[in-house]
Amino acid sequence: MQTNRSILLRGRYATVGDYVALTKPRVMSLVVFTALVGLMVAPGDIDPFAGMAAILCIAAGAGAAGALNMWYDADIDAVMARTAMRPIPGGRVSRSEALVFGLTLGVCAVLALGTLLNLAAAALLAFTIFFYVVVYTMWLKRRTPQNIVIGGAAGALPPVIGWVAATGNGGIEPLILFLIIFLWTPPHFWALSLNLAGEYTRAGVPMLPVVAGRAETGRQILLYSVFLALISLLPWALGFAGAIYGAAAAILGAIMVFLSSQVHRSDDKQRRPARRLFAFSILYLVLLFGVLLMNATPYAQPR
């Protein structure tokens, strides 16, 4: 039935909006924001033009990864209600068009970042796209319930790319930012997948709720949230951020752990705790990185 609908809809011409949808703009917005924070809190001053170029390149790279993810996962998207009307299963863009679009956008993003900023940042962006598309999408997603845990490394790299774009090198600070997003990803995504376990089962994707059940997923969500709350305090503890950030991290972390404990205690009939945690997890990351941006400790070290 889905195939027939796609064939009927294929007569439509793709619009600019369809290609924008391929880039997963909502996901991209978080990627761009965390990359911006990494860029802005890095030591030294960066030329405004170079900073804007870096953010645009990172956004394009994230969009390319999203398009290539949709290209490969079109069969999965077609059988899940949440994704059935994406451009490819909706019949508005063909898989070959999405593939060409994603590859072109990715190559241009990497080349531009290397030309306008530095090769280290460009190499890191290329690795991030590769990791998300090949390691996560093509390899892990359909094979292991730890797909989100391992694959989450790709989503945790944008602030590191931003930092390296500004400085040309790494350090303990961008590693901490990486760890925060890496630990944030499982409770964020598992909270969503708890209420979509049936769809993932039909799609043949071994998400943790499908393989291990709700109780174990809730336990893992709580465990990751506790580690996240602790790691999020490191920028303050190491002097990378001020007391305002430390207080915000403590409060946001406590709320995250509390909501995760509610999910852990909930049963199969209770969907609201997982929805609340998913919604708050997005707000958590935005607020945490936003406060870090405003309360980061100035650095005097040269690039």
TrEMBL record:
CDD domains recorded: PT_UbiA_Cox10
Could you give one GO CC term from the UniProt record?
Answer: plasma membrane
The reaction(s) annotated as catalysed by this protein in its Swiss-Prot or TrEMBL entry are: heme b + (2E,6E)-farnesyl diphosphate + H2O = Fe(II)-heme o + diphosphate
Describe which pathway this protein belongs to, using the record's wording.
Porphyrin-containing compound metabolism; heme O biosynthesis; heme O from protoheme: step 1/1
Q: How is this protein positioned relative to the membrane?
A: Multi-pass membrane protein
* Keywords carried by this UniProt record: Cell membrane, Heme biosynthesis, Membrane, Transferase, Transmembrane, Transmembrane helix
- Which family does the UniProt entry place this protein in? Belongs to the UbiA prenyltransferase family. Protoheme IX farnesyltransferase subfamily.
Name of protein? Protoheme IX farnesyltransferase
Tell me what organism the protein belongs to: Bradyrhizobium retamae
* Encoding gene (name): ctaB
